[in-house]
Amino acid sequence: MNRFGTRFSMSTFGESHGAAIGCVVDGVPAGLVMDTDYIQRQLDRRRPGGNAYGTKRNEPDAVEILSGVFEGVSTGAPIALVIYNRSAKSKDYENIRNLFRPGHGDFSWWAKYGIRDHRGGGRTSARESAARVAAGAIAQLMLRELGIAVEAGLMAVGQAQAARLDFAHAAKSAIFALDGDAEAAMKAAIEQARAQHDSIGAVVAARATGMVAGLGEPLYDKLDGALAGALMGINAAKAVEIGAGTQAATLHGSENNDPMTPEGFESNHAGGVLAGVSTGADLELRVHFKPTPSIFKPQQTVDIHGKPAECAIQGRHDPCVGVRAVPVVEAMVALVLADMALMNLGSRMDHLKAIYKERGCNDS
Ligand SMILES: Cc1cc2nc3c(=O)[nH]c(=O)nc-3n(C[C@H](O)[C@H](O)[C@H](O)COP(=O)(O)O)c2cc1C
Question: Taking a C-beta distance cutoff of 8 angstroms, is the pair 300, 311 a contact?
Answer without folding.
Answer: yes
